[in-house]
Amino acid sequence: MISIPQGTDAQWDALAARLRAIGLTSAWAREQELSSERMPATIASEWLRLKYQVADTPAAYALRLLARDEPVDTRQAVVALGEVGFAFARECGLITETTDGWRSPFRLYLVDDLYLLADRPGATLDIVMGVGLTTELLARAAYPPQRVDAALDLGCGGGALALLMARAAGRVVGSDFNPRAVAMAKVNAALNGIRNVEFREGDWFSSVAGERFDLIVSQPPFLPKRPNEEHVIFMHGGARGDETAHRLAGEMKDYLTEGGVGFILAELVTAPEGVTALLYGEPVDVEVDAAIYAAHLHRKKGREWWDETHQTVAHLRQCGVEELRLAILIIGAGNAEQLVIHRDPWRTMDRSQIDALWVAGTAHDWLERRARVVAGTTMEGECALGEKVRLWTLRSGRGSLRANPQVGDGILDLIRWVTRGETLGACVGGLSATDREKALGVVDQLVRHGILEMV
Ligand SMILES: C[S@@+](CC[C@H](N)C(=O)[O-])C[C@H]1O[C@@H](n2cnc3c(N)ncnc32)[C@H](O)[C@@H]1O
């Protein structure tokens, strides 16, 4: 495996300053991508590749060289990095000369105003994962609206989340089992001039024994590992894939300060116990899921990719898994019953919107609105033949991975009653203060379970 490039803080600072000076920013790259997004998926990536190839600018050369694994000639590499930057990049191994020009064995990601290096995608066992959509999703959900004292990025990889959180935290610890990831994260801290992050090596919480944090973020490995497969540190989360996420969810509260909140992003087969909230994506069929992840490892979509996909599918089916859901697990916030959100807006939710989910007495804010049952919601009752059903299981029309609420006739009457009125306020208006609070509390819970929605 290629060694992680090493340099002094001053050398990394100078390289980052050079990249900024030539206009290599995430905003610029985004602008370039917009034109290809109008194209059908089948031609979009080739369109973008050619767009960068004909662009005669230092930023386009630098992007090809460092971020896109497309060779540039010596003149273009020097124009991009400057004489000093070119010499440094060559000496530390950030770029190497190949038969068709200069390339980087690493990949640069542009995330907000950060430059983040990672290994190029592949199947090597100790590879450091690049910054993907899931990392960005977790960063958006967890980034605190107010400054916190201490934050932890557990399984930090190249340090993307730790370095993003560093702007909103007094100090951040990033820890990872993979020494290569820790070394890469240190380089990324230097490249971005970030000094309030400490990176440690260790097995999950062992590197922070006895410490507590106001914010913990973790994207553990969550792909299933087949019995005959070698363990890839950044990918495999257990036989089904979600075992590591379950374990971390169970242990996390012991490392949170009072009022601290933890966020774990993973694909789940079943819901873990003891988490305060679960934000679920749509269920994904195992075949689709396995094909997507196998595609990350096999650039060429040939027979190897097909076989890998179907071995994983067979393995998951043997484990009884038919579908998985991407989810964010929230630990430590709120105090009420577990909150489950199935709708997809959570993918675009930021931390302040997520925090608002715990504002006490939410139903008080809905008095001017009308309640209705979520389409497709069903109820099922079970009892011995000849007896009267006393408890009904409600199943949200949005689906659920966890136990569905069980309710008696009283709650069913309440549902009928609040869904018939013009507004929620009109329904509860005539009740005594105590009954009104009780009714609003139940409405609140039913909304959180995806049984009722406010329109
Ligand atoms: C899916 S990657 C996420 C990387 C990074 N946090 C991100 O979001 O881009 C999972 C990370 O967990 C790390 N990891 C795996 N097993 C671990 C363990 N036992 N203790 C700590 N970290 C571990 C891997 O090395 C890898 O960097």
How would you characterize this protein structure?
By secondary structure, this protein is an alpha/beta fold. The chain has helices at 9-21, 26-37, 41-54, 58-67, 74-92, 133-142, 160-165, 179-191, 243-251, 286-297, 303-318, 351-356, 409-420, 424-428, 433-448; strands spanning 96-98, 101-103, 106-111, 114-119, 148-154, 169-176, 197-201, 213-218, 223-224, 236-238, 256-268, 277-280, 284-285, 323-331, 339-341, 371-373, 378-381, 392-395, 406-407, 452-454. The strands form six sheets. Strands 5, 6, 7, 8, 11, 12, 13, 14 and 15 form a nine-stranded mixed beta sheet that branches. Strands 17-18-19 form a three-stranded antiparallel beta sheet. β1 and β2 form a beta hairpin. α2 (26-37) packs across α3 (41-54). The longest helix has 19 residues, at 74-92. The radius of gyration is 25 Å and the shape is elongated. The structure holds S-adenosylmethionine (SAM). S-adenosylmethionine (SAM) binds at residues 129, 131, 135, 155-157, 160-161, 176-178, 181, 203-204, 219-221, 233-234.
SSE layout:
Elements: H1 9-21, H2 26-37, H3 41-54, H4 58-67, H5 74-92, E1 96-98, E2 101-103, E3 106-111, E4 114-119, H6 133-142, E5 148-154, H7 160-165, E6 169-176, H8 179-191, E7 197-201, E8 213-218, E9 223-224, E10 236-238, H9 243-251, E11 256-268, E12 277-280, E13 284-285, H10 286-297, H11 303-318, E14 323-331, E15 339-341, H12 351-356, E16 371-373, E17 378-381, E18 392-395, E19 406-407, H13 409-420, H14 424-428, H15 433-448, E20 452-454
The protein binds S-adenosylmethionine (SAM).
S-adenosylmethionine (SAM) binds next to helix 7.
